[in-house]
Write a structure and sequence with these properties.
With about 110 residues, the protein is of the alpha+beta class. Helix content is about 20%, strand content about 20%. It has helices at about 60-75, 95-105, and strands at about 5-10, 20, 30, 50, 55, 80. The strands form two sheets. It has a three-stranded mixed beta sheet. Strands 2-3-4 form a three-stranded antiparallel beta sheet, with no helix packed on it. The two termini are about 15 Å apart. Keywords: Membrane, Transmembrane, Transmembrane helix. This is Carbamoyltransferase C-terminal domain-containing protein. It holds the Pfam family Carbam_trans_C.
Length: about 110
């Protein structure tokens, strides 16, 4: 099973308190506010939690801009994020993603 997680930029972390409970605690898994679960169902686990991921503008400016624009347009300062690495190594580059996609093309159709 692939892990589906909400990804938001660090500047939106404070705004994420509208969606998550106890953001000040350490960790990555937080309870999603019950009244917000219907707005972000794809990242809400069956127990009402979500595994949060953040990124900075310095480390990934294009993705940061995408999340920022999405947040401005929708009021939801996060995007769904997942990986290709089900039972395989984590991908580190776009080239690895393309090669994995081509090698496993039948799995996606």
């Amino acid at each position: 099973m692939k892990l589906l997680i909400p990804c938001l930029y660090e500047d939106a972390y404070k705004g994420a308190a509208a969606f998550f409970i106890n953001l000040s605690s350490s960790g990555f898994v937080f309870t999603i506010r019950p009244e917000k679960r219907s707005r972000i169902p794809a990242v809400t686990h069956v127990d009402g939690t979500g595994r949060l991921q953040t990124l900075s503008r310095e480390t990934n400016p294009l993705y940061w801009d995408l999340i920022n624009t999405f947040g401005q347009r929708t009021g939801i300062p996060m995007l769904l994020n997942t990986s290709f690495n089900e039972n395989e190594l984590i991908l580190c580059t776009p080239s690895e993603a393309i090669l994995r996609r081509v090698a496993n093309a039948n799995a996606y159709f």
